[in-house]
Amino acid sequence: MDKDRVKGAVNDAAGRAKRQVGEWTGDTNAQAEGSAQQIKGKAQKAWGAVKDAARDAKSEVDREKACEAENQSEREHEHDKEPEHRHP
Known about the structure:
This protein is an all-alpha fold and about 90 residues long. It is built from two helices and no strands. The chain is rod-shaped, with a radius of gyration of 28 Å. This is CsbD-like domain-containing protein.
């Protein structure tokens, strides 16, 4: 899991708490700060998810390339084993 997803979750939760306390106490400044922190947290989580998806996609492509290279090597090896056909 990307560190931005973790930081985002923390900011989202802290912002939600700050906003809620501001609502309970009538502190509009705390409400605004909490909302802003929540938005920042949600954006961080989304950015972390994008980075995770890109990393996962790259890993999948790398695995496919390695598998194809292995298959190609096996085909070449099998070709080398085939006896030569000689015609009289």
